[in-house]
Amino acid sequence: MRISTLAALATMLLLPVAANGQRVREGLGVSVSVSHLNFAGGAMTPATGTEIRPANGLTFEIGADWNRRGWMASIGTGFAREPVQASDAISALVDRTLPINRYRLVGALTRWLVSNRRSRFGLAAAPLLDHWTGNGLRARTVLGFEAQVRLAFPVGRVELENRASLGWEGSPFSTTDLGSNASPRTLRTVSLGLALRYRP
Amino acid sequence: MISNARLILTLLFLAPRLCAAQQAREGWHLSLAALHVRFSGAASDTLAIPGTTAHLQPQSRLSLDAAISRRSGAWEVSVAAGLSRGNLSAESPALRIVDRTSSANRYRASLALGHRVAALGAGELVASVAPTFDYWSMTGLSGRVAPGVEAALDLRLPLGRFELVNRLSFGMTSSPFHQDELPLTSSAQGLRAFSLGIGARYGLSH
Question: Which pLDDT score, from 0 to 100, does residue A23 have?
Answer without folding.
Answer: 55
